[in-house]
Design goal:
The complex is a heterodimer of chains A (214) and B (70).
Chain A lengths: L2 H7 L12 E2 L5 E2 L11 H14 L3 H27 L10 H15 L3 E5 L3 H4 L2 E6 L2 H5 L9 H15 L4 E6 L8 E6 L1 H7 L8 H9 L1
Antiparallel strand pairs in A: 1-2, 3-4, 4-6, 5-6
Chain B lengths: L2 H12 L1 H13 L30 H7 L5
The chains are: A alpha+beta (214), B mainly alpha (70).
């Protein structure tokens, strides 16, 4: 079922309809609350990475992941507030498909990429897999080394931490920037991810997922 | 490196958490209604669910049943 159909079936079409930004009398871009809005460019993302990595190798990855965790939790809390304002159930009380569809919509709406969530291993193996195509960070930071999507791993961690009520972690286990067909993330308990952490980047995503299924 | 830059650098690490929180606030900014996304209109495979469900369970019920620590 298409994302919009899932949301429509739950009466949530209004949540994702309409134009998010307008213009004030002076022609400035504003959000619905009237706050002025500017967009950051891909060059801004490259510059931020360069500054942090110049400060200390690894600072960009660590900072972006922590930033993403905080961002993901904020996003989930804001969606809850919007839903409550519409007299709709909050994220945890929505049917699972609608909750996942909102997150997938959110990724596309922010321009982060096309996200697909996979819970096939959740019930038996306690892991949730997310696959991302057309990652903004892969395309923007194409010249850098290593995996590109630390902030998105953090966002998934923060969002799923909010809706699950569990202390979860999320790691990117394959990245299109390193030659994988798409970026792959896995969510589970922090200690389980810590056990495979030394192998990330050395083994492909299927091998790492197989280890988590054992 | 100038003395001003050194002061900034020393200060930077002391406020790394605040920096991450401020950047997260900027990234999380999404007005309501959420922005329309063309990709959302494209049919996609339904999320692969643990089992077929006769009555759709809530997200909370599904996530509570997942054995995260296995």
């Amino acid at each position: 079922m298409a994302t919009n159909d899932v949301l429509a079936s739950c009466g949530l079409s209004d949540l994702v309809a309409g134009e998010p930004f307008g213009h004030d009398a002076e022609g400035r871009l504003i959000d619905p609350a009237g706050a002025r809005v500017v967009f950051a460019t891909a060059q801004a993302a490259r510059s931020l990475r360069r500054v942090l990595e110049t400060e200390e190798t690894g600072a960009w990855h660590a900072t972006m992941k922590e930033c993403g965790r905080d961002c993901g939790a904020k996003i989930a809390a804001r969606i809850d507030a919007v839903l409550a304002g519409l007299d709709k159930p909050v994220l945890t009380a929505l049917p699972l498909e609608a909750c996942l569809a909102l997150l997938e919509h959110l990724f596309a709406a922010h321009g982060w990429g096309r996200l697909q969530l996979d819970l096939a291993d959740a019930a038996e193996h306690g892991i949730v897999v997310a696959r991302l195509e057309h990652s903004f960070f892969v395309e923007t930071l194409a010249e850098a080394d290593g995996f590109a999507d630390a902030v998105l791993a953090g966002i998934l961690r923060g969002f799923f931490g909010h809706v699950s009520g569990q202390a979860l972690d999320c790691e990117e286990i394959a990245c299109a920037r390193s030659g994988a067909p798409h970026c792959t993330f896995v969510l589970t308990a922090p200690e389980r991810l810590a056990a495979i952490a030394p192998l990330i980047g050395r083994e492909d995503s299927e091998a790492l997922l197989a280890r988590l299924r054992q | 490196m100038t003395s001003a830059m050194l002061r900034w650098k020393e200060h930077h690490y002391a406020r790394a958490t605040e920096f991450a929180q401020l950047l997260a606030e900027a990234l999380a900014h999404a007005p309501a209604p959420m922005p329309h996304a063309p990709a959302a209109t494209v049919p996609r495979p339904a999320p692969t669910l643990p089992k077929p469900r006769p009555a759709a369970p809530t997200a909370a019920a599904v996530f509570k049943a997942i054995p995260w620590k296995k």
